[in-house]
Amino acid sequence: MGSDPVMSDEVLVSTEGALLRVTLNRPQKRNPLSRAVLTRLREIFDGHADNEALSLALITGAGDRSFAAGGDLRDLEQVTTPEAARALFDLGNGAFHAIRGFPVPVIAALNGLAIGGGAELALACDLRIAAAHARIGFVQGTLNISTAWGGGSDLIATVGPARGLQLMAEATVLGARDALEAGLVDEIAKDGEAFQSFVARVVDRWLKQKAQVLRAFKWQSAARKLGLARSEIDARDRELFVASWCHEDHWAAARGLLDREKAK
């Protein structure tokens, strides 16, 4: 395992082979998102964007109660002017855009509660997996504010305009199974399965793909999520297809398939 120097133990980061692991680390406070945490997330994902050794990234929270229980109100109560509010939006949205546009898939492992800004962080990721007791909700309306960091748009893109509007307007907090049914969560741990074992099982499944293939798949997802022009998407898709087609990994797999067909 390799690890990065950390500016704060509020966010832990390590590289484990092809996996980048990021952990929000204030479990006693339910892993809130302060400005320092948002800054650190931006630094981590920008700093690893050129790391060609990576195939996958994982974000989770410390403990078993909370993934991220919204913004850190103790810190954010200092944001009192329109200028400061704009800066806060730009800070969080920039951090989450670094995740949305990260060159490899990012999985949010919901070990517990993900509400408000924590739900936005989860939706900025490409996949959400959850413990059976996890809950997720866009509860910003209970504080008489709108979504702060692009999460409203992500929510609507995920569940559709009517359902997304309903979830925000009613500040609904969904349990893991209801979130799975709604499309907010993609997979839940099996009954009796330890959360860390569940996460490892999902990660291992994804890491069976070659890095260049996962990167191409992530590009296709992110490009559409970020609303890039179709011509730009097609041009980049073409480059990625050619690179993966001509890679020895492709020819090795193709030869293996042909050999199996001949054996039959």
Could you characterize what this model shows?
With 264 residues, this protein is of the alpha/beta class. The protein folds into two domains: 206 residues, 2-enoyl-CoA Hydratase, Chain A, domain 1 (Alpha-Beta Complex); 53 residues. Strands 1-2-3-4-6-8-11 form a seven-stranded mixed sheet, with helices on both faces. A four-stranded mixed sheet has the order 5-7-9-10. The chain is globular and about 70 Å long. The N terminus is likely disordered.
What is this structure's SSE topology?
Layout: E1 2-3, E2 11-16, E3 19-24, H1 35-47, E4 56-61, E5 66-69, H2 73-76, H3 82-100, E6 106-110, E7 113-115, H4 117-124, E8 127-130, E9 135-137, H5 151-159, H6 161-169, E10 173-175, H7 176-182, E11 187-188, H8 195-207, H9 211-225, H10 230-245, H11 248-263
Parallel strand pairs: 3-4, 4-6, 5-7, 6-8, 7-9, 8-11
Antiparallel strand pairs: 1-2, 2-3, 9-10
Helix pairs in contact: 1-3, 4-5, 5-6, 9-10
Question: Keywords for this structure?
Answer:
264 residues, alpha/beta, 2-enoyl-CoA Hydratase, Chain A, domain 1, 2 domains, seven-stranded mixed sheet, four-stranded mixed sheet, 11 helices, 11 strands, globular, disordered N terminus
The gist of it:
The protein is an alpha/beta fold and 264 residues long. The chain contains eleven helices and eleven strands.
| CATH architecture field of the largest domain | Alpha-Beta Complex
Classified by CATH, the class of the largest domain is: Alpha Beta
**Count of discrete alpha- or pi-helical segments spanning 4 or more residues:** 11
Which residues sit in consecutive blocks of at least 5 with pLDDT less than 50?
A: 3-7
Average pLDDT across residues?
A: 88
Helix content: 40-55%
Which descriptor suits the 3D outline?
Answer: globular
Strand fraction? 15-25%
Note the run of SSEs as H and E: EEEHEEHHEEHEEHHEHEHHHH
Number of distinct beta strands: 11
| Rg for CA atoms | 19 Å
Biggest sheet: strand arrangement: 1-2-3-4-6-8-11
User: Alpha-carbon distance between the termini?
Assistant: 43 Å
Largest sheet: 7 strands, mixed
CATH topology of the largest domain: 2-enoyl-CoA Hydratase, Chain A, domain 1
